[in-house]
Amino acid sequence: QSQLVESGGGLVQPGGSLRLSCTGSGLSVDDYAIGWIRQAPGKDREGISCITLSGDATHYAASVQGRATISRDKVKNTVYLEMDSLKPADSGVYYCATANPLQTFGRCPTFLDPRGFDRWGQGTQVTVSR
What we know:
- The model has no long low-confidence stretch (mean pLDDT 97).
- Strands 2, 4, 5, 6, 9, 10 and 11 form a 7-stranded mixed beta sheet that branches.
- By secondary structure, this protein is mainly β.
- It is globular.
- It has 1 helix and 11 strands.
């Protein structure tokens, strides 16, 4: 069964940093555009970052622009999301997902719309608090 597995979440103090990992199991992260989507309690899912299949472009939501970096390690079959200057508003469940190739053709969904992602991991909880 092919899937994505997230890890790296936890409790972080405001102003701190973290690195989330998204590892492919039974699938190659090289074969897809991969995105990160988060969901805070009581709120809709928000696409926050994406890297294209070719790696020629990365995209960030305004809410994380300048604080987040997405990258891909082909050898480890893993996509990372590094974030710093964390705020309580960054708390939520973070998911990684493949962009639907039939919709995006290896690119990232327009405006990082979560509906453009079709194969999701189980999520990892991030809590930013003192």
